[in-house]
Structure formats: C-alpha cells, structure tokens
Amino acid sequence: MLLDFPQLVKTFLSALPDRDFPVLDSRLFFSCWLALIMDKSTVSMQDLFKRLNHTGIPVDISTFSKACKSRSLQMFEQLYRDLLARVRRELPVKQLHPCPIDSTVVGLTSKLLWAQSYHQVKLLACLEHGSGATEGSLINFGYDHDSNFVNEMLQAIPENGVGIFDRGFAGLEYLKSSQASSKYFLMRIPSNYKLTFEGNAGQMRVGTGKESGMYRVVNFCDIENRAEYRLVTNLPAEGECFVSDEEVMELYRQRWQIELLWKFLKMHLKLKRLMTKNENGIRMQLYVTLIAHLLLELVAVPKMWGSQRLDKLRYLQCCMCKEISYVHWLGKLLGSRRRRVWSLKLCANVY
Question: What are the boundaries of the signal sequence (predicted)?
C-alpha cells in the first residue's frame, strides 16, 4: 500500500538521530540534502541556507560543506536499502519482467576535482520495470567502460527479471559470463560481430576465435530509423517458459524506461548539477537523488494530480510551499526538539 508523504517521513526518517551533533545533527543534515534535491525553487546552496538562516535555523554553508566531506555514507546507504526493500514489497511485479540496465555520466567541472584526476562520475543501475526499484546502483569515478561492470549488474538482476543491456555492455568475454549466469539477460550486440549458422537449431555462433560462443540471436529492423538490432539472450526458445522472438523484441523496447529515469533525475532532481566539490559529498548527492526517486515511487497523492513521478513531485512542491522549505516541513512532521527553538527565533525575527 502506498503511503502519503507524512507517513513516509515518519516511517523512514524518524530513526535518524537528532542529537548526535551539536549544530547539524544527522536528521537536519539529511533534511537539507533532501531540500536541495526536491525543492524546485532552490537552485543553489545559497538559496537554501539564506532561507533557513532568515527563518530561524542557524546553519551555515561552511558547516554543511564540512559535514559533506567528513561524515560517513552509512546513513544514506541504509536509508536507500530500507526504501528499496519497501518498494519491492509494496509494488509487486510480473513473473517475467524487464529490468533495463544502463549508466549515466555527470561531468565534473570543479578545478579541485580535476586536480584529483576526477573528471566525471558514472552512475549505473538496474531499473525494475513496474516497481521503479533501482537495483544494484554503482557509483564510479573515472572513465571505466560499462562492460567492466557486467558481472556486478548481472548480480543486481532480481529474481524473475530479465536484464536488458545496450551495446555499451557488449563484449564476447562478457557474453560468456552472462550465459553462464543463472540470471536471464538480453543484450544488444554491435552489427560488426560475425554471426555463423552451425546447425544447432535456434542458435548461432557469435564472434570468432576463442571468445566466440553459441547463443540465441534475435534480429529485427527499425525501418523508420533504418537501424538493425541484434539481440543475444538466454531466454528459452522452447518448452513451458517459451519466449517468442516478438516477445524478446518487446522486452528490448522497455530498455528506454531507464533513459527516461535518467532524464527525470537530471531535469527534476538536479542530478546534472552537483552541489559539492568533494568525492564524499558527490556520493551523498547521488544517494539522496536515488532516495528521492524511491520516495516518489512510494508516495500516494490525490488522483486529480496524476500518478507519474513528475505529478507527485509537483504535488509535494505545492504542499512544501506552505511550510517555507522541506527542512521546516520535515521538522514539523518528525516533531524535532529543535523545531521549538526555530519557531521562537522566527517569531523574534518577525517582531
């Protein structure tokens, strides 16, 4: 059952400690991060902290920045895992369902990061179509090719899921490891791979030399875009669990869902604009972005607003505007001990 936002906050955020640090406790720290990610009226740290400072919350940017650099990621990782487990439980999927796997890259423009040889950060995920769960999310700093993460992403494919890979993950040696895996997969291969019929019904030899192997290959063309698609899969071509070529094609079409997820994260949850200039802080932002996505999957909003991620985000934005900021709203919902002090300071500023 989906929950409304106050219930979600009380269920998942009430466990965050609010007395572990004298100025910026963990609950307030996470609230600031969530405000930076989800509040569409906040475009920078200066926007958020000016608003907080003038409404009774005495936290400055330098304190927040130091916390981003020095604090552990454990709180964010645990919250992400808890939300992921809740999404799996509340949003069941079909017996055999597509799980597109892909990566997105965010460029790093800070000279401080370039001095450490950090030029980009890559986020990889397996999106469970139907529930919206982002399984096996990986964060990589550097230029490592997607194919280097095939084994990790295979492990992320949930039970009864079909991992759908694009050409960036293709490679003859990785096809072998995928074939040996117990997980179902569907991988597009480049058109320059040699395909040879060798008499085995329903299978073809892909590639040449020692790395070549026998696989089920499904070919189809997109006449409108003049594109050829060659798909290698270990889905059964016969028996009780038979998956037809047409069904394989339709499964591959669902790969586009993860591209839509990246677009949403970058356009509406500010993934394309990194707020901090250190590796630890960037990892925090990526985790909070994924946490915000899972919250939107779980939250229930009035039907008149719609049911898509963006519809839910707009509804929460409307509700948040009544509470000054997400930080104030979360403090009100969680009954923070600091909230009474904030209210007194706000009243003093007004009068």
Answer: none
The answer to whether 130 and 295 have CB atoms below 8 angstroms apart is no
Which ranges of 199-272 does DSSP label H, i.e. alpha helix?
245-253, 256-268
Whether residue 91 contacts residue 61, with contact meaning beta carbons closer than 8 Å, is answered with no
Residue type, 189: I
Which residues are bridge partners to 189 per DSSP?
Answer: 230
DSSP state letters, 143-180: ---GGGGHHHHHHHSPTTEEEEE-GGG--HHHHHHHHH
Domain locations in the chain as residue ranges:
5-78+275-350, 167-250
Q: How far apart are CA 45 and CA 227, in angstroms?
A: 45
Q: What angle do CA 46, 49, 52 make, to 5 degrees?
A: 150
Between the two ends of the chain, the Cα-to-Cα distance in Å is 45
- CA pair distance 13, 9, nearest whole angstrom: 5
Residues whose CB is less than 8 angstroms from the CB of residue 56 and which lie 6 or more positions away in sequence, other chains included: 341, 342, 343, 344, 345, 346, 349
pLDDT digits (tens, 9 = 90+) for 122-150: 999 999 988 889 988 999 998 888 989 99
175 and 147 Cβ atoms separated by less than 8 Å: no
pTM of the predicted structure, to 2 decimals: 0.91
Residue 186: how many other CB atoms lie within 10 Å? 27
Q: How far apart are CA 224 and CA 204, in angstroms?
A: 27
Note the pLDDT tens digit of each residue in 33-47.
999 999 988 888 999
Residue 14, amino acid:
S
Token pair recorded at residue 293: 């996505």
Nearest to 35 by CA among 290, 209, 252, 292: 292
Give the three-class secondary structure for 310. helix
- Short-list 343, 347, 276, CA closest to 57: 343
